[in-house]
Amino acid sequence: MFQSSPARVALLIFTGLILIWTALLSLPIASADRSVTPLADAFFTAVSAICVTGLSTVDMSTHWSLFGDIVILVGFQAGGIGVLTLASILGLTVTRRLGLRQRLLAASDTNPMRASRGVSESQAVGLGDIGGLLRAVAVSLLVIEFALTVLITPRLMVAGYDLPHSLWYGFYLGASAFTNTGFVPIPDGLAPFATDPYMLGVLAVGVFLGSIGFPVIFALYRYVSNGWKPHRKKMGLHKKIGLHAKLTLTTTIIFVIFGWLAIAGLEWDNAATLGSQNVWDTLLSSGYTSVMTRSGGLGIMDPLDMNGSTLLVIDMLMFVGGGSASTAGGIKVTTIAVLFLAAYAEARGYQDMQAFGRRIPVEVLRVAVSILIWGATIVLAASVAIMHMTGEPLHIVLFEVISAFGTCGLSNGLSGELPDAGKYVLAATMWAGRVGTVTLAAAVAATSRSRMFRFPEERPIVG
C-alpha cells in the first residue's frame, strides 16, 4: 500500500492518530478537573489538533490540564508538518539516508500528482531534492518556532506573566502560529494584545511562513544560499525560484492585500469592530485579520460583530486558504491561480495556460477543477446538515463550516453550541479539508492513463 497509494496511507495514519488522540484526551488526567471529557468534545478537539484547525467546543485555556495541553501541542505539530513528511524525517534521522521508496513517499506528500504515471518530473520539488526538503522542513520547524518563542516570551513577561508561563505560552503560541492551528492557551486570549503591533506582527509573520508551504521555504532558502556561491553561477548550477514558489507567493500576497483593503473598507464605520479605532489601529487590525484568513485562526475581532459583507469576504479567503504542502488548509492558492490562468488563457484565445514564462499542463487544471468542485460540495453538504440541526441562519453556519474546511479556526462561537451530531459533522468537515482534497488530487491524478481508442467528439452547449 505504501508503494501503490501513499495518499491512502496518509489518510489511514491521520485517521489513526485522531482515534489515538481522542482516547488520550478522554482520560481524566487530560482535563484540569480530572473529569472524563465527553467523547464528542474529545473527538472534536483531537480532529481540530491533528488537522491543525483551531476550532474548539471547550475553553482551551481552562478545560485541559498540562498533560492535555501537551497532547494537543504534539498533535498539531505532527499534523502541521504532514504525516508522510514526519515519517520520512524520522527515517532520515535514524538511517541518515533516504531510499527511493522514502523519497517517493515524501515527494507524494509535497505533490500528490506524483501518483500519476507519466507526469513530468519538472515538479516543484525534484526527487533529488527530497532529502534537502526534509532537512529544510525539520530545520525550518525548529528555527522558526524557536525564533517565535524568543520574540513572544519577553512581550508576555511585560504583560505580567512570570517566566515559566511566558515561556510555555510563547512556545505554544509560536507553534500554533507557524502550524496555522490557531489554539490560544492564554486565559484572556489575544484580547490584551488586540492593538499591539509587536505581538500581532510576530504572529502574522509566523502564520505567513507556515501558510506558504515547506517547498516554497526550501526554494527560497536554496535560491538565497546559492546566490552566495559565485562558482555555482559560473558552472550553471544556480537554481532559480520555480513556478510553484512564484505562483504561491504572488497569489498569497494578492489575497492578503485584497483582504486587507476589503476588511478595512467594509468595517471602517462599524463601531463594534474598527469604527472606534484610529487609522493606524484600523489598518493594523484589518491587515492582521487578512493574514489570519490564510488559515491562522488567531483572531482578534468577534465575527458576530462584523458586517455580513465582511463575513462573506472572509469566507472566500478562508475557502482558498494557503499554499500547497503547507500547514494551511483550503483549496490552496495555487489551485485558484491555475483556475484564473485557465480563464485568462481562454479569454485571450491561447491554447495553453502560461505563467512566468512556463506552460502549465492540462492535467493540473483537471485536478484544480476537481478540488474546487469537491471542496464546494463538502461545504454545501455540511452547511445544510448543521443548519437543519441548529436552525441557525446561513451566514453564521457558513462561516463556521468554511473555517472548519479551510482548517482556519476563526470562530463565531457556533462550535461550542452544537449538539453532538453537529460536532461530528463539523469534525468530518475538518478532516475532509485537511486530508480529503490531497487524497482526491492523488486519486484524480492516478486515473490519468492512456487509451488505445477515443470516443467520437460532440460538444454540448456551455454557458
Brief overview, please?
The chain has 463 residues and is an all-alpha fold. It contains 17 helices and two strands.
How are the SSEs placed, and which strands pair?
Blueprint (H helix, E strand, L loop, with lengths): L5 H20 L13 H12 L15 H16 L1 H13 L4 H11 L19 H29 L4 H16 L18 H16 L1 H14 L2 H5 L8 H25 L11 H14 L15 H13 L12 H16 L4 E3 L2 E3 L1 H29 L3 H12 L14 H27 L17
Antiparallel strand pairs: 1-2
Helix pairs in contact: 1-2, 1-3, 1-17, 2-3, 2-17, 4-5, 4-6, 6-7, 6-8, 6-9, 7-8, 8-12, 9-11, 11-12, 11-13, 13-16, 14-15, 15-16, 15-17, 16-17
State the main characteristics:
1% strand, cell membrane, transmembrane, ion transport, 463 residues, 17 helices, TrkH family potassium uptake protein, globular, membrane
Protein described:
It is a single chain. The protein is mostly helical. 62% of the residues lie in helices and 1% in strands. The chain is built from 17 helices and two strands. The chain has helices at 6-25, 39-50, 66-81, 83-95, 100-110, 130-158, 163-178, 197-212, 214-227, 230-234, 243-267, 279-292, 308-320, 333-348, 362-390, 394-405, 420-446; strands at residues 353-355, 358-360. The protein has a two-stranded antiparallel sheet. Residues 115-122 and 234-238 have low confidence and may be disordered.
